[in-house]
Amino acid sequence: MRSTLTGSAGSHRFTLLAGAATIAFAMPGAALAQDQEPELEAPESSNVIIVTASKREQTLQETPIAVSVTSGEVIEQAQIRDVLDLQTVTPSLRVSQLQTSSASTFIIRGFGNGDNNFGVEPSVGVFIDGVFRSRSAGALSDLNNIQRIEVLNGPQSTLFGKNASAGVISIITKEPQFEFGGSVEANYGNFNNIFIRGDVTGPISDNIAFSLDGTYQKRDGTAEIVNLGVDQNDRNRWSTRGQLLIEPSADFRIRAIADYSRIDEVCCQVGTVVRGPTAPALDLLGGQTQDFSNFFNRTTNLNIVPENEVDNYGGSIQMDYQMDNGLSFTSITAYRELDNFFRSDIDYTAADIANEQRDQGVKTFTQEFRVASDFDGPINFLLGGFYFDETITQQSRVENGSQIRDFFELLAGGNPADILTGQPSVFNAVEAGLGLQQETIFRTALLSDENFRMENEAWSIFGTIDFEPIDGLVFTVGGNYTDDRKNFALSANMPDPLANVNLVDAFITLATAGAVTTRDQFQALPAANQAGLLAVATTPCPPGVTTGCNPFVALAPFQFQPPFLNVPNAIEDGRTNDDEFTYLLRASYEISPELNVYFSYSTGFKASSINLSRDSRPLGTDFSVTPGTVNSTFAAPNSPILDAGLAVPNLVAGTRFAGPEETEVYEIGLKGQFDGVGFNLAVFDQAIDGFQSFAFTGTGFALRNAGRQSVKGFEFDTTIQPTDGLVLTFAVTHLDPLFDDFTGSVVGDLSGVRPAGIPAWAISTSATHTHEWDNGTKLITRIDYQHESNVDINNGLPTFNGPINNRRNPEIFRREINNVNGAITLALNSGLEVGIWGRNLLDEEWILTVFDGVAQQDTVSGYPNQPRTYGGLVRFRF
């Protein structure tokens, strides 16, 4: 099935699969998992799920938070390799990987951002063993030796310190054990997929234990760069982690962790969804552009092989001390580094038009300290502090290809015969008219050369107080005060000669025979003369007309990388300083030992994000131009930047940063655990004021605040164990989102419009059956199904559709997901296991997302999903 355009395509497949799904009800994390070593047998109904979502060990039923749990057992059984696969068993979570191996976005309840700009921190915080991973690229290594993964829905700023305005993904790995043991696993699958992982743990002394684990994965690409004969969307990554657990006494323990992971891949395949009018020009240059009929053939044509390299490493020390008086102390100290490099062909054709590369580095130090009580009395508390210090550096550039001038000459109406034979054409005449050196437009080596740096220091104090006046009734008050400061420095050189000329101002200078060369000289003219010059200078010349118009102004679309105003400067200090107090009010009640209910109101916060890109522009309060003047500096009104003499040619207003996000959510929850049946229900009304929207505009990215985005909905999951050995799970999320206020989106006023990309219904369901023979050998069979209802992929594309109130093209692209995965494992009593597995077994096809073709008017590009993968495994536990 291909979900691409508006309509009901694919609904018949959902009907069939939904019918099949009614026989398998499931909680996304194969609930009933224990906080124990993972076993392959189906757990007994008397077992409970232990979570630390509230930074205390509690059962899932006792935890008054909407949280989904995926056990290490399910991760092994379902061959969940990384957090991208986690969404198949957690319907409130969505993870997307797009431009590069490191460009991923985590989304919970429809809220998420930060996929393609290191200045934008994710709204969904990722924590691994209590350590905050500030960028999604730092959380993408293969999952191994996992105890459980908790997905906390809704704002968690009260207890999780840094920027968790939409939710938290908390990954907990297994601690070292004082009993020797371990496992080794080898997988082989289609596309020559080799995946090896293993772990070993044991004692060093009576009070010191160790563990060591690692993974290695190599796979051919699921797509092919046909003209270069190279695979794309391959896998080439490895990771290792070592741990020490030191217990000097019964009440004091130290856990030290060091890890390193590496990704070196050719990612990510882009296909053509709509072939625009620029395609013939590209084909004339050997671009070999394709149309949508080849989209799911997973073939492409590029002029270079993309490079994606990610090195992620660091360490942490956690110390826990338990006092006899009921107080416990926890300290987590961590330092991490992330190096991310990529180089890619940004026109996605075989023509040599333009390539982009980025070299990014992130250095992060965090310190968390908590004290918690476990008193017998009615009052208990948790109090903590969190410190965050991070430095980000980025060197970026866009390289002009050898054919970029020829391509734009063709789009400008040049004679193909002259262009292909190297004869003078359109740009030669432009160079002569503007007094530029011949053969210089689009002949510079670089279109842009950029250097960015951001330093972020933040601290917070947080805590909760629980008051239990009678058994089973608990009132909770929580709060968090955060202070977040960012300093940023942005500099860029845009060397293209045409981009450095203001076409209106240059015409005025020519029309006045050089008498007007500055803004002051223009402003000194009589008002009638100014108006007359502007009228002519802003009027494009129709074919065959040479008077009363400006022959250069039609070239403005080719100035898409104009000069950059560096920051800090005399007007812009390159600083943000945010502080906020967020809080939680909650009441929970144990109706019976099997049933708990809670109600909560909470707020969340995420500090300002910085646009670390060449698309960073001064705020409209600092600089503005007169509408319709093609950014004329001569005619621009007074503004701080202009008055300070800082304005560069073709400067426009925009944003350097997006202000903070502020979240509030009302939630009612019901949790039950009966003999053989468990369930969780949460009904919520959640909104984010100032949601940080980061959108591609065709040649760059715009970072803006939505006024308000809200979502109402519910989450329900249940686990049923009808007989020994059979566990059925079912989880569903229903979302009804709305842009309450978003007047400044890149596609116009979206106020009152449903945000795209958020399915109304998301379902995860599974069935796991374990047959055990008398000798202890087991056969474990698992099947799971993921569904996302048909939804618009986005609210429109700036270049393809235009503004929402004046659409050039009404076509909106859609996506529906129906994904079936399965595995069968035979576990012998000797510790040897063999199995087979498959993901996307029905080989369903859908578009992950779409975007405007880069500098290609009315072309739409997109990313296809992963095809069917399958394989076999051998595992040995000892």
UniProtKB/TrEMBL annotation:
TonB-dependent receptor-like beta-barrel domain ranges (all copies): 293-794
Domain TonB-dependent receptor plug residue range list: 60-168
Keyword Ribosomal protein: no
GO biological process assignments: iron ion transport
Superkingdom of the source species: Bacteria
Key words of the record: Cell outer membrane, Ion transport, Iron, Iron transport, Membrane, Receptor, Signal, TonB box, Transmembrane, Transmembrane beta strand, Transport
Chief place of localization: membrane
Signal peptide residues on this chain, from the entry's feature table: 1-33
Bilayer topology: Multi-pass membrane protein
PANTHER family named among the record's database cross-references: FERRICHROME IRON RECEPTOR-RELATED, TONB-DEPENDENT OUTER MEMBRANE RECEPTOR
Protein name (Swiss-Prot/TrEMBL): TonB-dependent receptor
